[in-house]
Amino acid sequence: MGKEKRRTTQQDIARMTGVSQATVSMVLNNRDDGEIRIPQETRDRVLAAIQSTGYVANPIARSLISQDNRIFGVFTYESVFPSEDLDFYHPFLAGIERRAEQLGYDLVLFTSSPVVDGGRKIFHAGSRLRLADGCVVLGRRVDRAELARLVAEGFPFVSVGRRDDVAAGPVAAVGADYVSAVAELVRRTGGLGHRTVAFVGEGAGPESSADRWAGFAAGVADAGVRSVRLRAKGRDAGEVLDSLVEHGATAMFVEDPDDTAALVEECGRRGVRIPEDVSLVELGGSPPRTARATPDFTGFRIPREEMGAQAVDLLARILGGDRGPRTRLLPCRIVAGATLAAPRSTP
Amino acid sequence: MGKEKRRTTQQDIARMTGVSQATVSMVLNNRDDGEIRIPQETRDRVLAAIQSTGYVANPIARSLISQDNRIFGVFTYESVFPSEDLDFYHPFLAGIERRAEQLGYDLVLFTSSPVVDGGRKIFHAGSRLRLADGCVVLGRRVDRAELARLVAEGFPFVSVGRRDDVAAGPVAAVGADYVSAVAELVRRTGGLGHRTVAFVGEGAGPESSADRWAGFAAGVADAGVRSVRLRAKGRDAGEVLDSLVEHGATAMFVEDPDDTAALVEECGRRGVRIPEDVSLVELGGSPPRTARATPDFTGFRIPREEMGAQAVDLLARILGGDRGPRTRLLPCRIVAGATLAAPRSTP
DNA sequence: CTTCTTAGATAATAGCTATTATCAGTCGAC
DNA sequence: GTCGACTGATAATAGCTATTATCTAAGAAG
Known about the structure:
Radius of gyration of chain A: 28 Å
Low-confidence stretches of chain A: none
CATH topology of the largest domain in chain A: Rossmann fold
Number of helices of chain A: 11
Largest interface: A-B, 55 and 55 residues
Distance between the termini of chain A: 85 Å
CATH superfamily of the largest domain in chain A: Response regulator
Largest sheet of chain A: 6 strands, parallel
Helix content of chain A: 40-55%
Strand content of chain A: 15-25%
CATH class of the largest domain in chain A: Alpha Beta
Oligomer: homodimer
């Protein structure tokens, strides 16, 4: 039992100086309002004692009073640091950290949350969520029910990525504007002379997938081209390529990076050159994960770091009582790349 | 002003149920000791109210009483997430996170600490260090004075990497055993027939550098070979190689990865083959940072993740009052690699 | 009927800080 | 000498939970 010597408290300082605890508190906080009057001599005496003891106010007691903690929580459904997930989380966290630093908030990672079938749970007996003034929720898989409960309990939070409405109302969220990005890419493709373009993927289900499809559809309408949707799930790249040819499509927009890799490989096997014979637009939104040589894909970049920063920003505003819009949609950067070119036979 | 509706408190639950706040607290904590008696009927009533409101005890008030917070601080002298520093911090953090998760601690990152000429400061007016029960200190540049103050104030902390003594006594720390690793590499080199080996670098200054030199010296003694130390600071790779040849050394142990890269390049220019003409042992301790093709260097790996985990572990023990050893030195893994081989002309 | 025991609960308090209300002087003015 | 105004401080309290000491009523034992 270490029997740690009790921390110094304001009471201690007060006794040392022969003043009251209240006085110490006021000196500490530089209170000098109309009502509060402390002569410099007393101030100096107290400050000297503070200096000599190295006293620092107990932030926990402060929080209990002020009802805020200057801490933002970062809740992730998976561990943050393991390598597999790092590529995903890292840019968000970089932005979160940067802005928290600017705003003077500390960050708490809720690593103590119990893991229930593969994902952490926000709510559980002894949840320490309230340590934070507010929370940024982050993750590939975000639990709608938990978000709904956050809303119901009035706990301030901002979701990064997921922005669909939950039962109790719209969720404060920062998202990426997939729709515009994909639409723009389709328009460029049409502008290069392609007359039929293919969407490879589901285009439904997760919000982000539905958005990509929506953007694709919008771009197709704008560009006045024909379009076809090719399912990739459960089919190998060969089948997909066959369908592509069959439909006469000259450009493919691929949702899933895994499919992209498979298609590139299959093209290589068949001697189909990209972009000379077929164009490929990659809709993953991330830089390539592997260091292996991959084509310089045409596509877009999700502004992950900026999303993290804006999430913190938004959270701070909400805590400040700001009643402005609670959803921010950030533009994605278009990557010109080298896998999109004019089709071989322009009509 | 949001006029956030006040959080539910035990007092609220008490009023709803017609019991006292104390009873609510006891039900909540499942108190059932000899002195505490609460019939099941009452218990159920209270629990029902807790369920319906979703009440969770305010962790801040709890902390104020229990004098602990179930939070470990992670103090870094630089931002954690920016890409430049990520390679360095990430493995440590992965280990810290993993073990904190296992032990049920949350982690707080002191992002609010003010930055003074390039590095964050632990101590400052309004330091929120005490939010944490203890702290892991991490960083390339660790401030001795601040560590000393942590010791003086009796704040529990564990330093990762830096383990030298500070004024007030030995610092709890987790380090990597560079000495053994480098010594072993030198012995292997001697075992392959090398008679003269060179240490390229300072071998002094930062603890880790001094350790590498100590290990080199120990290995040289064990292996019974001759050794030479070549400064690299301010000299270009050509000069260093010239010295090497001049001294008749057939293997070089290079401290700094930048020097390694320069030497490899210079060897390439001169047509000196590695390891056929000269062996190279890389003492950086990290996997290569760039994705560019680099030789598969012989060297060792600092067990960064394990260091992070053990730091948390040690911190938990210290908080538990454990009086055991406060310094842990973890073995490095030797990487056989492909840049060490027998010298061309074995005597 | 009195006293003791016990079950079942509550009042009071600690933990530390910030704020509000209050108090003891002093000085001036009348 | 009294009243008011002002200075320089302090006592008390809120904030929320966990624990300790205390209290009431009922039943048992004598």
